[in-house]
């Protein structure tokens, strides 16, 4: 059963497969790979908490080590991504997290709200008064890309290439790339890191009120600044984590509203339920379906032996629909009291730093869409299609007929 993990049918709609995983055993080894899938909430929660046994130094995305052969290797690469946040452990991780957390405080994120509302309005302004849009292309993708670009401090004129670099960087996670495509993504990553190198050099000459300048000025308790390699790695992670996941959250939320018209009608009447709608979208259409850990010792998960050096995929998309935690787990429930208990942002020392920012984008987006559009509807024959990625839940497109409210 676990062998269906990479199949197209599973990638397009994994939830019946996830249910089988949870009900049969909860922990499954992929055939031909030293990878264990963890599908139940309690087990996923446990692995996330056992940082001494399960390391974040799990390497690149699924199957990427096997694919990074002669065809994909870049022996003369100028830049390399050093471990900072996502693929690091304490005490090194602790140092970086303390330095970067200052940029994501609730106060700083709240200060971004007026600009964020302006971006949302400008995107809706471009919608026809009564006509067709592609919600992914025209709203879900540009919103977080503009927000994170402004946050980093890069010019909006570079958004198109910025988006390509971000998409390429995220694509390596899913385990479905060919060696040729892996090489293309590695070349794209070199271009992205080179771009950030140039931007950081400019900030050193002319500081600004942005994230890149904050990285340059950051020092730890021993007055030790970040190296250029560390700044490049943090910038890269911030771009991808702040962009790709929010695109998927916004797309998933709109899809759920289309599939649950009664919930949409209720949101139009009661805007206080918008934050819960965002949490339910994060839970039901988990933007990043899983995260990888490296087993540091011979251990076990829920009675299943897991050898040292094995890789463990915490399938948060499965854990988030576990009936042991979420009553009627497949229901989009605006009254769910524990909606925020999902694992979509991780947990503990690796809880996503951008969680507050992403939530704020989702709430503001839905507020303005409801305020400014009398209706938004998918065609009756619409069938969702997702990118071929076993980890990122990325809707390719979503046609919508929109009708603006009278101004």
Automatic annotation (TrEMBL):
Transmembrane region(s) = none
Instruction: Give GO terms for biological process.
Output: cholesterol catabolic process
Keyword set for this entry?
Heme, Iron, Metal-binding, Monooxygenase, Oxidoreductase
The entry lists its GO molecular-function terms as: cholest-4-en-3-one 26-monooxygenase activity; heme binding; iron ion binding; steroid hydroxylase activity
- This one is known as Cytochrome P450
InterPro entries in UniProt:
Cyt_P450, Cyt_P450_B, Cyt_P450_CS, Cyt_P450_sf
**Does the keyword tRNA-binding belong to this entry?**
no
Q: What is the lineage of its organism?
A: Bacteria, Bacillati, Actinomycetota, Actinomycetes, Pseudonocardiales
| Stretch forming the signal peptide | none
SUPFAM superfamilies the record matches: Cytochrome P450
Q: Which family does it belong to?
A: Belongs to the cytochrome P450 family.
Q: Which organism is it from?
A: Haloechinothrix alba
